[in-house]
Specification:
ten-stranded mixed β-sheet; 1 helix; Jelly Rolls; about 0% helix; mainly beta; disordered N terminus; about 500 residues; 2 domains; Neuraminidase; elongated
Length: about 500
């Protein structure tokens, strides 16, 4: 075990907490069974490698059962190891990896990176004592080395690739661990009647140097992800060191559309290589784009004209020449009526941003909101009866809806603790997904590089539930991003570079 880029003071901070009782293992203070393990675990340290043997039903759900070799730590840390199972194994979901854990209780909050016996690799986490476990599944099978970085309350997953190099693969999770916690190696058989063995080598545990707080201008890496509504589990589709924004799900559910560098790209939901869509002369498209209800067309908001004002265009879904719909700017698209005849968008026509509609073929635009203050994010309900939007008219940015003709506006989200943006109705009409910023953000702003929360609430309003806590903001989920079957949403998470 070695410390990398750690000052003497940082090392003292890392091991400031007293060692807990029991057998030492190499430079780990203790190894022990956590939870209900039918067969006592054991561990051996030899020639710089750690061999753990463990039973245990799982590291999952509300309680865990596994063997753990760990040290008490505090502050920001990194832990990494080469991981290799011994033998064929009994259960394909046996798990071995690195773990950060608030306590040694079986139901403790934790974050880990686990390599499964069948090759699946995921970042698992439990946010509260005795709470449910969730995961971010990597977009690769197998990894010989895993690396978990924990900085400022965020956990970041890096894995070795086919070339043997270990790189960040995406899917950051925000989960603050308090005071002293534990860092170490973990193994569970995923079958409490048997024991499994794994070898951990080239183990590294160290303190991370401090980084300046990110600003909206801080360069970032981007991860395109999907999230399953039923269990809040996330899957990494693609990671890039570049900047991408605002995924839309295709009409047939097979691919995602996003923008980057003023252009549009598509990527299979199963992962693969991005392909640029042909958009004619348009080269400064922003993150307000989407598909027509029948999937035959793409609508974009573009700022290519010399005045840099956003205007709405329509082009074939397969790519092609665009057709201008809104000659006036700025105009930012957000919704397409289910009958395919009308676009809803946000426009500034005299100093205030309001909700407007216009026929798909062009023509006169209609202003639907006149209340002073910013309105944004206008999307139709799947039955066409409502337009959902976010507005500051209550004094805080909250989710609202109104009838499709602009009448009968009603507030749907409440409370002073968040700024709620970009409501997205599910295709089945049951749910609204939206993004919430903290009160450190100005009421009318939705900047990049912030702590944000993805939330879900009933379409008619009600208490929201948290889907994910992540580093994001502008570009994360600006436009319609539901899968056609209403089971998942797509979004982009970010990580500061450096």
């Amino acid at each position: 075990m070695k410390f990398q880029a750690a000052t003497a003071a940082a090392v003292l901070t890392l091991f400031a907490a007293p060692a807990f009782a029991g057998d030492a293992l190499g430079t780990f203070a203790k190894h022990l069974d956590i939870g209900a393990t039918a067969i006592p675990g054991k561990a051996v340290f030899k020639d710089g490698s750690y061999t753990l043997t463990a039973s245990g039903a799982n590291i999952w759900g509300a309680v865990d059962a596994f063997h753990y070799a760990a040290n008490p730590v505090s502050g920001d840390v990194v832990i990494a190891a080469d991981v290799k199972f011994e033998g064929q194994g009994v259960d394909p979901h046996r798990k071995a990896g690195v773990m950060l854990r608030q306590s040694l209780d079986a139901g403790s909050p934790y974050i880990d990176i686990m390599v499964h016996g069948d090759g699946l690799v995921s970042l698992q986490f439990r946010e509260t004592q005795g709470g449910e476990t969730h995961q971010v599944t990597a977009n690769q099978k197998g990894a010989t080395r895993v690396k978990l970085e924990y900085r400022n309350g965020y956990a970041w997953m890096s894995l070795s690739g086919a070339d043997g190099q270990t790189r960040y693969v995406g899917g950051g999770v925000r989960l603050p661990l308090e005071g002293s916690y534990f860092a170490g190696l973990a193994l569970s058989a995923h079958n409490n009647a048997v024991s499994e063995t794994a070898v951990f080598s080239h183990v590294e545990l160290g303190a991370l140097a401090a980084q300046p707080a990110p600003t909206p201008q801080t360069p970032v890496e981007s991860t395109l992800e999907t999230l399953e509504i039923s269990n809040h589990n996330r899957t990494i589709v693609w990671h890039t060191t570049g900047h991408i924004e605002a995924p839309n799900w295709s009409h047939d559910g097979s691919y995602l559309l996003y923008n980057s560098g003023g252009h549009l790209f598509t990527l299979p939901v199963a992962g693969g290589t991005p392909e640029q869509r042909e958009t004619g002369a348009l080269s400064k498209m922003n993150n307000d784009h989407g598909f027509s209800p029948d999937g035959q067309w793409i609508v974009v908001s573009d700022q290519t004209q010399p005045d840099n004002q956003s205007r709405i265009h329509i082009l074939p879904a397969a790519g092609g020449e665009p057709r201008l719909v809104t000659p006036n700017g700025p105009s930012y698209w957000h919704g397409w009526s289910p009958d395919g005849k009308t676009l809803a968008y946000i426009a500034n026509r005299g100093g205030d941003y309001d909700v407007y509609t216009i026929p798909v073929e062009g023509g006169a635009e209609t202003r639907l909101t006149t209340t002073p203050g910013l309105d944004d994010g206008s999307e139709y309900s799947p039955d066409g009866q409502w337009i959902y939007f976010n507005s500051v008219r209550s004094g805080n940015m909250k989710i609202w809806r109104m009838k499709a003709d602009g009448s009968g506006a009603e507030q749907l989200s409440f409370g002073d603790g968040s700024r709620d943006w970009f409501p997205h109705p599910s295709p089945d009409g049951k749910w609204i997904a939206f993004i919430a910023f903290g009160t450190d953000v100005a009421v009318g702003d939705h900047p990049a590089n912030k702590d944000v929360v993805l939330k879900l609430m009933p379409a008619a309003g009600g208490e929201p539930v948290v889907l994910a806590k992540l580093f994001g903001g502008q570009g994360t989920i600006n436009v319609p991003s539901w899968s056609p079957d209403s089971k998942k949403i797509a979004f982009v998470s970010y990580r500061p570079k450096g």
